[in-house]
């Protein structure tokens, strides 16, 4: 099976600072892959490089077999690789509906109506708040909005960057239930998280990143079976 996302020897960074130092990673169609690591490990830089926001310096990024390193981020979105960034990045002075509609600005605009209904089916609270300014939503509702906006683009691969950050334990449970539901519908997900336990419960494979390098790749059971890895990189 051809990987939906294949990253080979990826180097990236900012100015004179090299953050990623040769990353190899794959996501298969319909698979949840967990990308784990502490703050500063390079996870968000990886996401932004794959998404075309930060330029790759060396290496290959293939999406559905097509090279996308150096491609404009808008073309990457059009191909179906969608990122829900850390911190939600909603537009606080726009309404919930306007935020959602912006999700389909580049991709799936002609199916905006049906996709809105799908998002409202997943997040009924957003339907109740369509005219409300996004900045007045609770933290959990803002995360719903950010994910809903990503779904409006009909992603083939959804990158979720720290989606549980700042959420209450109850909302974290709801979030991971949603991720499992989207996976059940066949959506491929790259889950970038510090919530190690719940990420490993739903992922088929996992990568552990440290200092811009992949220190482990394999199944969650293989990762949890290694005392060294659990203690050194996961704090378990």
UniProtKB/TrEMBL annotation:
Top-rank taxon: Bacteria
GO BP annotation list: L-amino acid transport
Domain ABC transporter per the UniProt entry, residue ranges: 5-236
Gene Ontology MF terms in the entry: ATP binding; ATP hydrolysis activity; branched-chain amino acid transmembrane transporter activity
Keyword set, alphabetical order: Amino-acid transport, ATP-binding, Cell membrane, Membrane, Nucleotide-binding, Transport
Family matches, as InterPro entries: AAA+_ATPase, ABC_transporter-like_ATP-bd, ABC_transporter-like_CS, BCAA_Transport_ATP-bd_LivF, P-loop_NTPase
Similarity comment text for this entry: Belongs to the ABC transporter superfamily.
Protein name: ATP-binding cassette domain-containing protein
Protein's organism: Ramlibacter pinisoli
